[in-house]
Amino acid sequence: MLAPVGDYMSHKKLNRAVAAGVFLISLTVYVSTISPTVTLWDVGEFCAAAFSLQVPHPPGAPLFLLLARLASIIPATSDIAMRMHLLSALASALTCTLLYLLSVRFMISWRGTPEVFTDKIFVHGSAVLGSFSLAFSPTFWSSAIEAEVYGMGMLFVSLILWLGMCWYEQPDHKNGDSYFLLVAYLVGLAAGVHYLAILTLFPVMLLYYFKFHEFSPGSFVRFGAAALIVFAIVYPGIVKTLPSMLDGEFAGIRSVLFQIIPILLIGAAIYGVYVSARKQARLLNFALLSFLFVALGFSTYTVVFIRANASPPMNENNPSTLAKLVSYLGREQYGDEPMMDRRWNNDPAHRPALAKYSGD
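RE: above sequence
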């Protein structure tokens, strides 16, 4: 049953007030406990890379570095690294706020808008509890108070999921494509922070499935196949395959012809958008625009190529050619190791010790 308009407006105001409280509390805690200067491991590397726009370890984080560079010139504090830490604190606080809003949306889609006081306590109270459980968990908290990519990466994850829920609640197709096109752009942008956010494609596509289909094994298998194709177009398609083709290589084969394929694909997609719009082919128009928006968002990685060719002091893997850039994007320097056996080590000196272990 839908709540009366007055009750809905009351819920909307309460929801906004509680969301603002979640944001202010989490941000206050993060700022109060923020690292006063550079910390160990990747943080120092990211701070140095952002300050001079250098090239850090693969696969890089160009969008994060650009935003951290902007944060470094805002005189919020005297320590340059701490200014960049504040960016993570802000992104993490926004993530907690979006988690609260997402939780409320999920509960309302399940139980309806809360009308009585006890229902409001249960809905908003449990959403706040879930949000603060993330906010003050040791792993999330520790990355929220230093210049690491994880806080901003999680912000993209939560923002994409929140937009998916906004679309799901639309009564018809009005503005529906706009939500998904923004999601496509954010997925491309998010890759410039951390590849993790690309995985949000699956839950967003699940929302689409359950919006228009009743569950059945057959339809779900077909959906799963389509979802895997969409994911493969983004990763490794746009992220790795297109840059590799620009270098003239595909599936281990080199040819000058491969270099023109990405350009032809982009050109064909742009022309296809024009034609499909004139012929009102909505689905084709949406698919082509989504492809272009993901590619546009991912274009932040041109920063890596440009800065590598400037030969900065920090230039890890020197991705100054397309071949080196493809290796950089694919994180090839890390090699391959077994996923399950944590005792594995290829160093002969470690084998006698390895033989003494009976299990993990």
